[in-house]
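If you are new to this repository, start here. Below is one unmodified record pulled from the training split, so you can see the exact layout before writing a loader.
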Amino acid sequence: NRVRAIAMSATDGLQRGVTVYDTKAPISVPVGKTTLGRIFNVLGHPIDNLGDTSGNETLPIHRPAPAFTDLETKPAIFETGIKVVDLLAPYRRGGKIGLFGGAGVGKTVLIMELINNIAKAHGGVSVFGGVGERTREGNDLYMEMKESGVINE
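And here is the target side for that same chain:
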């Protein structure tokens, strides 16, 4: 009886030979309108001190992809409102966007502008996923969006 696992949170007290239990369920995270403007850890637990989300609907992190019949078949360009992006590297509507670059080139500023434009001009929803030191930037971004009114109370 052996198990291989990936730690998704603190491993304090975990050691070889300790008894573990199978929950028989995948990692599930809260979804829906009540999660908008919130900050969660990798397990879907709120870390913003704005209350519990345990009563919300949840979905597993691994799900089947949508059927092709449910997807938009005609590609459309997403207008970001940032002229250089729209001209040189346009984004597809409904897709995922990743920004990569060296230190000090303006990735965070661009992300803040994108989220602001998506929220105000298009009435859309943006998700910021931070890894490592980016979580600090995510917190700074959250505070700035709250102050500017992009995130409603």
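Two things worth knowing about this chain: The beta strands are 28-30, 58-60, 77-78, 91-92. Residues 74-153 form one domain.
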